[in-house]
Amino acid sequence: MDSLALLWDGVWLRWLAPSSSEVAQREISRKDMVPEVLRALRNQVGSGTQVVAAEWGVPCTLTPEALTQEVGHEEVLVQAHRLHHGLAVSDDHIVHHMLMEDIDPACRISVSGSADWAQALNAIFPQAQRVSVAQALMQDALHWNRTTPHQGWSLRVDVQEQGAHMVAFQGEQIQWVHHLPQGAASDDVLYAMVNACHRGGGEVKDARIRWSGDAKWTEGWSRFFDVERQGSAEGWLTLFESLSSCA
Questions:
Q1: For domain 133-244, which architecture applies?
Q2: Which end of the chain, N or C, is less surrounded by CB atoms within 10 Å?
């Protein structure tokens, strides 16, 4: 990997340095310490290093690109995002947008995150490319469907002790994007996926899952789905590799 990948969850900063195969992490108890930690990372990797940055556990909304062609579309995206997620998007959140042209239909991904994090990131790594966990998982799912076509739903999931992010496709058509916070059990994630299939018109028996993260949070999934691991690494590494591929 030639880029520095960063993932912030409001308490822990995790990163994958260029040419490294080990995800490092540091707990940051005070917001004013975030720039200090980022500055130390910049000193390690160099100021000109390519950087991708995402936030874990933040709300996500998809809006078809065809609906965002008008002038002022960013305001429309923000309003739709706040309407969809309500109190989960507070006034101290900043909404970022990413375009996914490969999916059907092409969509704008809106994610809301910490304004303090955004300010620190822009100050220390102004070249940083903002990506989202949902975006990385969508790219994984698209690649999976293109290399191994499947008629039913294909779900790409990253599940950790800190919660879970999930996306679902049928072919190249996006069906579902969701996340669960820390405290969710493996059965909670399983229920969310089964329920999404039923509500979206998919057949659970025809669906398949590729997961990354912590295996203990996937217990019981194989009772309902064809389940396999994305990559071979336990923990955060596979997700960071997916995030880096968005650069």
A1: 2-Layer Sandwich (3.30)
A2: C
